[in-house]
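seq as requested:
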Amino acid sequence: MSKILIAEDNAVNRELLRELLEMDDHIVVEACNGEEALRFLDDSKPEILLLDLGMPVMDGYVTIRKIRENPSLAGLPVLAVTAYAMQGDKERILGCGFNGYLSKPIEPKLLYQELNRLLSAKTGPKGRADAAHNGR
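C-alpha cells:
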C-alpha cells in the first residue's frame, strides 16, 4: 500500500484515478491544481504524484519545475497523466523532469505497470511486497 497524490482539475478524471488506485489498495490524496498539490506534498508525504498537465492556477509544467527545484521534493517520482498524446509529446514531457507518462483516457493496466515501475525504482532493487500491485 502506497500513498499517492493525484493532481487533476477534472473531477471525473480524478474520481476514475482514485477508484483505480483504491482498488489496488493505495491511499489517495487529491488536489485540483498544481498549487494545491505543492501544499499537499509537505503535509501528506506521498510516495508518488500523478500530475495532470493542463490545470488552472498552476499547470503541471510549472508544478514539476517547482518540485525539481526543491531539494526535499526533487526525488519524488512524478507521473504525467495527460491528454497530450501527439507525436513528440511524451519525449517533451519526460524532458521536463517527469519520471513517466500516461495518456488519457487511462488504461488501467498501463497505470498499474507505471506505478509498479516507479515505486519499485524508488524502493531499490529488492522492491517492496506492496509494490507488486496485486500481480498486474
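Confidence is low (pLDDT under 50) at residues 125-136.
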